[in-house]
């Protein structure tokens, strides 16, 4: 884990993926610009048929801190963010922010997340740590979210309480260390994927409590296919991690027996000696 002081974050890129968010994109861009005036905002539009991209273009023409990356079609949340990461890294930003376009993530809390990044590699805006809240969600959505995070924590053995959270700050150095080019996740399990990669790289991941507010305009992009993808991928990742743990345990046992044999002691007695504090 990194212990040396982290470089000061000076250049920030806030990535906003959009698909049919004509009713929200101007609102979210203006709120981000007010909350963090020094940051660049990158709208990643997947050829929205409702004109979201055209609204974003107008905002970019009015404000030199706003940029638009037009993508050829709806390809999923993960690929949109990967494109945003690449755009930001190519332009030497020190940190990249993930935020939803629908207002469910409060841009006004972004300064708190960036402040936490002074001593972290990845900052997660968490609904499920003390101080975190969820507003206006129906019971079935809350149950799905809590269940998904419990499922991820148990199967993957990770300490993060809100691994599916989409409000985040990544240091550029963290994104480079995580080999994001190898990420294949499409939907919301993209967040779990990056959480896992960060932890496996020994990066410091911290959670900051945030208030999550259900969108008021437009419709959620969550569907059964996204849920199935997350359940399947997390299950596969969990099985692989458990198998690696078993193999590691077996390898340690074999090594202990070989050392015991070389020393002329019984393997059983050698194990007992190792277990004595």
Give an account of the 3D structure.
This protein is an alpha/beta fold and 277 residues long. The chain folds into 2 domains: 12-222, Spore Coat Polysaccharide Biosynthesis Protein SpsA, Chain A; 223-277. Helix content is 46%, strand content 15%. It has helices spanning 25-35, 52-62, 77-90, 110-116, 139-156, 172-177, 189-200, 224-262, 267-275, and strands at 12-18, 40-45, 66-70, 95-98, 122-126, 133-135, 168-171, 205-209, 211-213. Strand 2, helix 2 and strand 3 form a beta-alpha-beta unit. The protein is globular and about 60 Å long. The two termini are 26 Å apart. Mean pLDDT is 85; it is low at 266-277.
**What is the name of the CATH topology of the largest domain?**
Spore Coat Polysaccharide Biosynthesis Protein SpsA, Chain A
Distance between the termini: 26 Å
Indicate the proportion of strand residues: 15-25%
Rg over CA atoms: 22 Å
What portion of residues is helical? Answer: 40-55%
Gross geometry:
globular
What is the name of the CATH class of the largest domain?
Alpha Beta
Structural class: alpha/beta
Mean model confidence by pLDDT: 85
Question: Total domains, how many?
Answer: 2
Compute the number of strand runs. 9
The parts where pLDDT drops under 50 for at least 5 residues are: 266-277
How many helices in DSSP terms?
Answer: 9
CATH superfamily of the largest domain: Spore Coat Polysaccharide Biosynthesis Protein SpsA, Chain A
Order the strands across the largest sheet as they lie in space: 3-2-1-4-7-5-8
From the coordinates shown, what is the CATH architecture of the largest domain? Alpha-Beta Complex
- Major sheet attributes: 7 strands, mixed
